[in-house]
Amino acid sequence: MQVSKWQGQCPECRAWNTLIETAVMPISRRFDNLSGAHSEVRALNSIETGEQPRIVTGMKEFDHVLGGGFVSSEVVLLGGDPGIGKSTLLLQVVAALGAGRQTLYITGEESAEQIALRAQRLGLINAPVTLLAEVRLETILAALEKNKPEIVVIDSIQTMYTETLTSAPGSVSQVRECAARFTRFAKERNIVLMLIGHVTKEGAIAGPRVLEHIVDAVLYFEGDMHSNHRLIRAVKNRFGAANELGVFGMTESGLKGVNNPSALFLSRHAQPVPGTAVMVTLEGSRPLLVEIQALVDPVVGGLPPRRLAVGVDAQRLALLLALLHRHGNVQVGGSDVFVNVVGGMKIDEPAADLAILLSLYSSFINKALDRQLVVFGEVGLAGEIRPVQRGQERIREAAKLGFKKIVIPKLNKPKQALDNMEIITVDRIEDALAVAQGR
Ligand code: TYD
Ligand code: MG
User: Fold this and answer.
1) CA of 82 to the centre of ligand 2 (A)
2) What three-state secondary structure class fits 113?
3) Which of 5, 129, 184, 427 has the smallest CB count inside 10 Å?
4) Is the CB of 254 under 6 A from ligand 1?
5) What residues pair up with 250 in beta bridges, in sequence order?
6) CA distance 25 to 363
7) What is the C-alpha radius of gyration for the chain, rounded to an integer number of angstroms?
8) Ligand 1 near 207 CB (within 6 A)
């Protein structure tokens, strides 16, 4: 459906406010592919592949998330809540790349003075970075044409606008059009382009989500703003593994990679406490130890029982509670149930089932699990414990961090025994609950 002027209602389906303004490009350009390459039909095996040379920032955690650094003319979208550290991170990145490469930081959100102040705080005031405070796409493209930078940051895509559209900056059509034009330009001129996008509170509207298909890689800041840790996850990466996670600390002088992220999500209690279980989760290519906490507490005063899951799926929690009831005779109908993942992590792999289950059970029977114990495993609806991928790696990571006992699905049992690690295999929920009871 196309109309040529603003209209609140779609004349075809009668829905309100669903029409979106778009720029009408000349036919010849409209169907250009975004990679800017000329197309010809070729045999698959005639295409040269080879390792893509990487542009390494030297910030280890950031390079890790990218899959080993940028590749040439890569377009990366960095999303996250306002104030979480996007501008800080990318200023550090251009500063790190500035030696030997021409970099340009384009700010539409803050003035050049504000960026310079931030650079001063970061101790980067003498870094070889050039700045441009501008929001008009056409002006920026002309400046890029003139200065020929190799690395460009746009902070943020929501502040940019093009004259070809009449809608306001930050609207879906402006955001999408600007991102597409910048992307095409970057691909044609071999520029590494980083776009900053705010995640808007109302959800996906005009947020980074509408751009995910245009760019090569999408990174999101995750985690708790109130802690000093910042997690960056690659939710899409054409040049590396998706789901890769980088762990940073926010310090006085900006974001610093965390050297041993595996131990970060453990709370290290002085005494064993009921209701906690440590699991090994996989974040991209990297195993991480994470503590899951549960509280099962009788409801007082006849209120309806509450169910709260932070960092794990609420539906999954409901399912595990039903399984506990059926196979462990655990009645939680009259109890509040809370589950939380330490450190603001989100875990969505089924390998967390067993840890959630044991933390719930441990809270229910008010008996702490062994402090040396780690678990992983998926729980099936019939009460069976199912194997998870890359069990060996998980066991090794737990051993590396000094844990002495691990509860795993029977089918994940390693062929060889490990020194200093007692491996307990379980086949059914009942087996796992017996471990929790210390039997
Ligand atoms: P910022 O990069 O401006 O966030 P965004 O671009 O995502 O909106 O980061 C803002 C926060 O980071 C701010 O609350 C202050 C904090 N901060 C530090 O703790 N240390 C620093 O060195 C800097 C520059 C910022
Ligand atoms: Mg910012």
Assistant:
1) 7
2) helix
3) 5
4) yes
5) 255
6) 62
7) 26
8) no
φ, ψ (nearest 5 deg) of residue 295: -135, 120
Q: Report the b/e string of 336-356 with b at 16+ CB within 10 A.
A: bbbbbbbbbbebeebbbbbbb
Is 87 near ligand 1, meaning CB less than 6 Å away?
Answer: yes
Give the residue from 418, 431, 336 showing the smallest Cα distance to 377.
431
- ω into 39 cis (within 30 of 0): no
Strand partners, 335: 298
- Which residues are CB-contacts of 393 (< 8 A; sequence separation ≥ 6)? 282, 287
pLDDT tens-digit series, residues 416-427: 888 889 999 999
- Give the other-Cβ count within 10 Å of 281's Cβ: 24
422 Cβ contact partners less than 8 Å away, ≥ 6 residues apart: 404, 405, 406
Q: Tell me the C-alpha distance between 67 and 242, whole Å.
A: 9
Is 80 exceeded by the pLDDT of residue 379? Answer: yes
**For the chain, how are helix, strand and coil distributed in percent, rounded to 5?**
30, 25, 45
Q: Which of 35-44, 253-262, 334-343, 397-406 has the lowest mean pLDDT?
A: 35-44
For strands 54-55 and 70-71, give the pairing: antiparallel
Whole-number percent of the chain with pLDDT over 70: 93
- Is pTM beyond 0.85 here? no
Q: What is the Cα–Cα distance from 224 to 346, expressed in whole angstroms?
A: 10
In sequence order, what E strands does 123-239 have?
Answer: 130-133, 151-155, 192-198, 217-222, 229-237
**For residue 335, how far is its CA from the centre of ligand 1 (angstroms)?**
41
